[in-house]
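Hi all, long-time lurker, first post. I run a small reading group and we've been trying to get comfortable going from sequence to structure in the token notation. Rather than ask abstract questions, I figured I'd post a concrete chain and ask someone more experienced to write out its structure so we can walk through it together at our next meeting. Sequence below, copied exactly:
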Amino acid sequence: MRVFHISPHAVSESAVLPEETMEDGFIWMAFARREFEVLQQEIQSTLERLCGSQIVDLHISDVLNNQLPSHYDYTSDYNLMVFRRLAAGQSESDLSRPGEILHRSRDKGGPPVLHRIDTSPVAFVVFDRLVLTVHPTDCTIRDSFASRLLAAGRATANQQAYRMPLNPPDLMLRVISQMVDGYLNLRRELTRQLDHWQSELINPNTRFNNWSALLDARLSLHHLDEICEDQRAAIQDWIDALNTAAEPHASQPRALELLKVRSRDVLEHIERVVHHVRRLEQSAETAVQMHFNAQSNRTNDIMRTLTVLTAIFLPLNLITGFFGMNFENFPVLHDENGLWWTLISMGLLGVLLVIFFWRKRYLGGSS
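-- Answer (accepted) --
Happy to help. Here is the structure in token form:
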């Protein structure tokens, strides 16, 4: 559990649940999912004391469910955002199996970059003066964001290059933006891996046998596309809620406008990831089709060469079969130069056929 008291120019951290809200700032309470599961009664009491309301039971189940897709929901007292981040192979427990790791180890092969397409949800419960987040265990995004926040709080006014979050929704969007940056970094590694496979698929001098890894990559890209679509829908619902909630924020139009700008920026980043993932899927499919087309052309070249060789030797076989007939009176067979004349005519016929097929471009591979 990490609790932060955030004001416009200072940040302080404590390890206990807060007793009261701040007058010139807000509170950020960050929990691991298992920790929130154990302390939910104390947390609910704290929320009732500080915000005058509690998290409803259905939303508690959503927060503790580590298989839940990204989505947005709201009540009259708070907003709930669930956003899936890259988990790097780590997962978390929930109420159905307390303390047990739900993530199954990957027994499939393939490059390590495919193992990184594993996600875990982060839940944001946003009140007016408080934001509660539930993360996977040892969440690096939470720790890195908290470190940056504490460093900005210790800096002087002249040294502050990092602007403090203005309110709980602003903090939520900043954390989500950092999660989306992880997807943007992942797409570069996926691009390099697929480019390597494409070069192997198209190269006629190599025999590609890594079909299981390529299939895993296509399935992983499809899964990543579904994750990003859920994220885009959740952020779009959040933007729609901001647009309809303009009246309650009329006293702070500047803060509302900044929230809309940051929300649109996050949405644009997610759309970039979706576009890139779909382009990678299309590239992988195109590479496979080009591979089979190249194999088909190579097979056609081989069959054409064998057909030409058969056509060359067919009249030669006819000649040898003709002179192999067992007749008593065969004039050419009794000629002392008959063998040489036969060999010369067969060689000349073979050369003429080779020249003919070469000029017709039936010999040699296609360029």
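A couple of things your group might point at:
The CA atoms of residues 72 and 81 lie 5 Å apart.
Confidence is low (pLDDT under 50) at residues 88-108.
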